[in-house]
Amino acid sequence: MREKYPICPECGNRWVGRLTAPGWYFCSTCTVEFKHDDDGTIVYTITAEGIRKRAHRKRRQSMRSQELSPT
């Protein structure tokens, strides 16, 4: 029987990978490691790479909005 993989709580991505730690999963899109506790709560950590990606994404969005605004 196949294991049912969860959806990423951060971005909603369905293509998550399993980590070696039991119960932990990894999302390659937003680089978040997460797991579901016994009571159903979601525990997750953002990797250093994910923090860099987020900062870069925010910077790109702000630059793009400056380019689009007429001066």
From TrEMBL:
Organism, scientific name: Sulfobacillus thermotolerans
Protein's recorded name: Transposase zinc-ribbon domain-containing protein
Highest taxon listed in the record's lineage: Bacteria
Entries under SUPFAM superfamilies matching the protein: Zinc beta-ribbon (SSF57783)
